[in-house]
Design goal:
Layout: E1 5-8, H1 12-21, E2 28-32, H2 37-48, E3 52-57, H3 60-74, E4 78-82, H4 88-99, E5 104-109, H5 119-122, H6 124-152, E6 156-160, H7 173-192, E7 199-203, H8 212-216, H9 231-243, E8 248-249, H10 256-273
Parallel strand pairs: 2-3, 2-5, 3-4, 5-6, 6-7, 7-8
Antiparallel strand pairs: 1-4
Length: 285
């Protein structure tokens, strides 16, 4: 695997100056999976809010096109890193690159892979790739920025999960499992950081009109159009949830607060009922 490619239209000294001068409330946002879809739209919206950017994706040419359009539109500094987050060397390079950057104030863990097929037909390679990107890379990059965030008592981590985290189908066992990990990880991390100034959010979109569906083996055209949200609507709603302090944002759910409260009550009741050293009566003769 070639070394990750780092590109920036500005010089290294210029980007460092811009980073040092960035407003503490904006600073640099790192967005993974930023060459298209949700990631590219996050990059656009965050640049509009005044963030400089570090954009990560596999396709250097497409990524650089996104970056240049953002530079032209908003005048912010945009650095691009071409890397495959399923590759250990690439992931380590990206993590190392962002770990020492005190100007970073936000991480958007958007990169993800979906393969919709029964587990037995998925194959080891595809299964590992999905786990590597959806789970391992997300945790690794979070660990890269978290020490700096906790030291400064500020910063934001946004993890893109899915409503598939709440329910699975016969063809989504691996995908739903990876997204359920993101939801649980975000909940736990948010609890750890509750008394700090570091903010954590999990975003659980329903169907969104991206090319990921066709790549995953389930054509977007096969879905009911009424259930599919546009990418801009999804990202704008997710950022609205962030602005209002939500830890879990479901962009398409109208009464999310009540439904999440009921969901939490049910899962904590089940957890509470498990706190017994005695086997349930149904397991006794």
């Amino acid at each position: 695997m070639p070394e990750p490619k780092f590109s920036n239209q500005s010089s290294e000294s210029n980007i460092m100056t811009a980073h040092l001068n960035a407003d503490a409330a904006t600073g640099i946002a790192v967005v993974t999976g930023a060459s298209a879809g949700i990631g590219a739209t996050y990059a656009d919206r965050l640049a509009r809010r005044g963030h400089d950017l570090i954009l990560v994706a596999r396709r250097q040419d497409v990524l650089e096109g996104v970056a240049q359009a953002i530079r032209d539109a908003y005048g912010v500094v945009v650095e691009t890193i071409a890397a495959d987050l399923a590759d250990e060397a690439d992931l380590a390079s990206v993590a190392s690159r962002i770990a020492g950057n005190a100007g970073i104030t936000m991480l958007v863990n958007n990169a993800g892979i979906a393969t919709f097929a029964p587990v037995i037909r998925t194959g080891v390679g595809a299964a590992n790739q999905m786990i590597d990107v959806n789970v391992t890379a997300l945790v690794r990059l979070t660990l890269a920025v978290l020490p700096g965030f906790t030291e400064s008592n500020s910063g934001t981590i946004i993890n893109i999960s899915s409503v598939a985290a709440l329910g699975e189908m016969p063809v989504t066992a691996l995908y739903s499992g990876s997204k359920a990990f993101i939801l649980s990880f975000t909940r736990g991390l948010a609890g750890e950081l509750a008394a700090t100034g570091v903010r954590v959010q999990a975003v659980l979109p329903g169907p969104v009109a991206t090319d990921g569906w066709d790549n995953a083996g389930l054509p977007l055209s096969s879905l009911n159009p009424a259930t599919v949200m546009s990418v801009p609507d999804c990202v704008d709603a997710a950022l609205g949830g962030l602005d209002t302090g939500e830890t879990i944002t479901l962009p398409s759910v109208e009464d999310a607060a009540t439904l999440l409260a009921n969901y939490d009550a049910a899962r904590f009741a089940l957890l509470g009922a498990s706190q017994s050293g005695t086997p349930a009566s149904r397991y006794k003769e």
